Amino acid sequence: PTVEELNAYLDENSRDRRAQLVSKLLSPEYAEDYTRNWTTIWSNLLIGRAASDGDERATVNREGFQQYLREALKENRPYD
User: Fold this and answer.
1) pTM score > 0.70 for this model?
2) pLDDT tens-digit series, residues 46-61
3) Contacts of 6 (CB under 8 A, 6+ apart)
4) Distance (Å, whole) CA 15 – CA 23
């Protein structure tokens, strides 16, 4: 979280602040940001950041791989 988000959470005095935070984190908007971030991280780690001509990574379908990861995260598939 950002510093502002952390401070807002800590300043919140309601008894259900944790439940409210969980609901926010499970919202579709947050899920899209989460999957975008992690598909970028995993594709950079597993494929590499950039592929140049003649590099075998140039034949990898990065978009297809990221789509697969988005679906796997959305469906909560196990890593194995």
Assistant:
1) no
2) 877 665 556 655 567 7
3) none
4) 14
